[in-house]
TrEMBL record:
Keywords: 4Fe-4S, Iron, Iron-sulfur, Metal-binding, Repeat. PROSITE patterns: 2FE2S_FER_2, 4FE4S_FER_1, 4FE4S_FER_2, 4FE4S_MOW_BIS_MGD, MOLYBDOPTERIN_PROK_1. Residues 11-89 form the 2Fe-2S ferredoxin-type domain. It comes from Streptomyces venezuelae. Residues 230-286 form the 4Fe-4S Mo/W bis-MGD-type domain. This is Fe-S-binding domain-containing protein. InterPro entries: 2Fe-2S_ferredoxin-like_sf, 2Fe-2S_ferredoxin-type, 4Fe4S_Fe-S-bd, 4Fe4S_Fe_S_CS, Mopterin_OxRdtase_4Fe-4S_dom, MopterinOxRdtase_cofactor_BS, PSI_iron-sulfur_center.
Amino acid sequence: MTAIPLQPPRRLVEFTLDGAATRVPEGATLLDACRAAGKDVPTLCEGDTLTPKNACRVCVVEVEGARTLAPACSRAAEPGMSVHTDTERTRHSRRLVLELLASSVDLSTTPRAAAWIVEYGAEPGRFGADAARLNEEPKVDNDLYVRDYDKCILCYKCVDACGEQWQNTFAIAVAGRGFDARIAVEHDAPLTDSACVYCGNCIEVCPTGALSFKSEFDMRAAGTWDESAQSETTTVCAYCGVGCNLTLHVQDNEIVKVTSPHDNPVTHGNLCIKGRFGYQHVQNRD
Ligand code: SF4
Ligand code: SF4
Ligand code: FES
């Protein structure tokens, strides 16, 4: 029998969140505390299965006594700190971040972005029509997934998922610097000529829809993509003995994409090509 060592119990950290006494396990972030308290702090680059990158700064909160605003997604709760999540300063900062992002990239498929823009009174148009836009055509170079970098906020989540944090394939990286920085495969080649193994783990973490299933991309183009008409069923992949969890997204009796629960302690939302994309035989009725 294999002995499984128990982790030592984690101590609780006591601090004040929007004036209310709060306790969270040691190591929890301010975002964890906000979510546990039912507070809706916007996030974009935060990934629940990835190390925080602090790229977008839309999640900032105010810590009493601190000179700068703190990103809630990466700042650990400390005993005695007093944190405010909804002040004029945090709202102003979030508004500006949303304005800058929405004026430079297409947030139309970023969940909740439109609602946050309204909530924070962001006016992306105030930078004028000349505000930087990539205006790149989506890269459709294979049958499995599409890269639409007009929607990319350069959060690097896909790079981390493809690289050392999960997949260790290192097919995608950041090319260029400053304003020219772009997510790309080596030599900006088509995906089919790259090291990509089509696990789709980058799609799983992309917060904006810049990376999407070809099925979703095609249905959006045809105007038939309708999340409200989709059901989700979590099951077990039958291809091999790892037994990853698959969540099948079904619309009109067809599987339209496959995701995986992030809270699975073995796979953390990651899959391989078979589990992610190998579902066509299920609906081949010929
Ligand atoms: S493609 Fe998606 S995950 Fe990758 S950097 Fe852009 S927005 Fe982030
Ligand atoms: S997703 Fe891949 S690794 Fe996981 S059970 Fe299926 S075939 Fe095996
Ligand atoms: S979500 Fe916290 S910095 Fe992006």
